């Protein structure tokens, strides 16, 4: 069976192990709509990256 190999393959295959992630916390007071109403787009802002002070902000767009 053929295999795919290239320079830097190991870095690409294991990249997901090194990418930082943040868990989303449910805050009912900030919710819009009802659970299961449709899709959400979650957009991270520069605040989350620490470029503009402390704190983290997410913009969440709800649409059907």
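^ structure tokens above, recovered residues below v
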């Amino acid at each position: 069976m053929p295999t795919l190999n290239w320079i830097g393959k190991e870095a690409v295959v294991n990249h997901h192990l090194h990418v930082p992630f943040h868990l989303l916390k449910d805050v009912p007071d900030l919710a819009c709509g009802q659970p299961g109403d449709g899709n959400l787009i979650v957009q991270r802002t520069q605040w989350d990256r620490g470029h503009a002070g402390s704190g983290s902000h997410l913009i969440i767009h709800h649409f059907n």
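The chain has one helix and two strands.
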